[in-house]
Design a protein that fits this description.
The structure is a single chain. The protein has 365 residues and is of the alpha+beta class. It has helices at 3-11, 27-34, 59-65, 78-89, 110-120, 132-138, 142-165, 172-185, 247-266, 273-286, and strands spanning 21-24, 42-46, 50-55, 70-74, 99-104, 124-129, 190-191, 196-199, 219-225, 227-229, 232-233, 236-242, 298-300, 307-311, 324-327, 330-333, 337-340, 343-347, 352-355, 363-364. A hairpin with a 2-residue loop joins β10 (227-229) and β11.
Amino acid sequence: MDHKGRLKRLQTCFDSNSLDALLVTHLPNIRYLCGFTGTSGVLVIFETSSVFLTDGRYSQQARTEVQGARIGIARKPPLAAAAEWLMENGRKLGRTKPHRLGIESEHLTVAGRTQLASLLRSDFRLRETRGLVERARMVKDAEEIARLRAAAALGASLFERALDVIRPGVKENEVAAEMEYVARQAGAEAMSFPTIIAAGKRSALPHGRASRAAIPSQGFVVCDFGVILSGYCSDRTRTVHVGRPTGEARRVYEAVREAQAAAVTAVRTGVNVGEVDRAARNVLKSKGLARHFTHSTGHGVGLEIHEPPRLAAGQTEMLRPGMVITIEPGVYIEGTGGVRIEDMVVVTEKGCEVLAPASKELITI
């Protein structure tokens, strides 16, 4: 990973954001910028240099992983250590005071901000920033795409185990446990999120995490699952039907499948993310099902399972080559059931590539 290049590109944004320095506290952003994968640390970035601060538990790990930044090992919490370091090294920011220190307003707690302001006193003025690192993370480089492709392939393979296990009377969490066991055996570091297995009427819950409920003898089963591999997440949804589906059930499934295909076709460089969302909704509207589609069409995926951009009405981000997003329209009818179909795609110059493509014909069990 080009951590040094990422740091340098971020530093070029300081002038346009009226910053003398940036304090990075969100761990996925820290990992993206310098490679550290632990759970405690902060990254202080000046215009020409950076320092990563952590505690003694991570001294060896930091020396192994961190690139592009000096390493400081402190005997106090990282935020307090960063404030102390800034006070001692403020001269690097020039003579003008107060120095303008950017903070990640979406990730630093109120208590953390209060502590930081108290420790830095009048030498620094805290400036709220939003999404400086996240915007850089939206476009993946070749190595990131390779990792995402591998994660998507491993995640997709878990569906075969689900098909082996899903039967009337089997508990939802038993299906999830089997899938997660296979994932670990295959090398996954963890699941991207709590596995969703939602059967029968529960399939109408968009985020129906696997429960102790038994799979009924008739109805849809929504399976939403993903793994973390080499730090990168995957996300996939397939819906199957237990028992012989009714004509209405087939109609709903085919409507979602058509909506998902329309949204995938709409993905290409220069297209507004809102247009991709609209492509899916227009199909469901034509089928009289639009009111049952209650969430956005997709989201970015990378070091975190939910990243920018968000594919939803009113969003204006333009798609660019290297973005990796999900396409996941759904229909959820309370008291009856629901359907969702989801793939990860990478945006290319001419369209998109579906990661781990597979048939989406309705499977009946």
